[in-house]
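User: My instructor asked us to take a sequence, write out its structure as tokens, and then describe one feature of it. I'm not sure where to start. Here is the sequence I was given:
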Amino acid sequence: MLTSPKVLEKLKASQRHYEGVRYERLAELPAEIAETFEHFRAVPGQLAWSRATAPHRWGEDWLTAWFRASAIVPEGAGGGGLFLEARTGAPEAMLLLDGQPRGVFNEFHSHVLLTPQAEAGQSLDITVEAYSGHSFPGTMPNDEPIVVEKKGRTFEGLFLARERGEVSQFLFDLQALIELEGVLEENSLRRARILHCLEQVWATIPAFPQEVPEQEYLAGVAEARRIMEPLLASKNGPTAPEVAVAAHS
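Assistant: Let's start with the prediction itself. The structure tokens for your sequence are:
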């Protein structure tokens, strides 16, 4: 079966929309901010803290902002994973829970797990360290200079959130097939089956999940995963090369 190249383009565009519904915000946390040029290896207690009401402008060359908040796990949020969404405005930020490092926010990680098994009424002491950055001329001959402006970062809030696990798994499954299709030989039978599967997925899911009721796009996601499952379960033959993966945070 011939598959239009536009199907892949449309699926990739739809992926971005489904990333937007991967997490559900539960509550915004009242936050405080403290700015410093000093470097701390633990949550600083001696800084001057003030209320950070979004949108809050901050930032300067070599400056670090610390954000803190206290949270109580709301009713109905217990029994599963609880995440923090930190919109600090910084390129990277680090989460500390009860004073201990727990993860990093960056362009690839908008949410970090607070606890895999939240309990209603549980108290959480949250701190986020966000580095504003520093100006430099670039690292290659034709690079444009990177300039960090004063008050050039915008804090947009700290939010408790929970993951829609079915959406996350759908995105992982879909990405695996899209990447596999991209590396298989053009006349591969497996590639043809993947393209046919992706065409079925595109016909199954709402393209814009934000525009339909939650139960509607979740039903589409569940059916799309059912369609993809046989291809994801297929094993390589015994002569296929082995791949090893090494990673770091």
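For the description part of your assignment, you could build on this observation: The chain is about 30% helix and 30% strand. Try explaining in your own words what that tells you about the chain.
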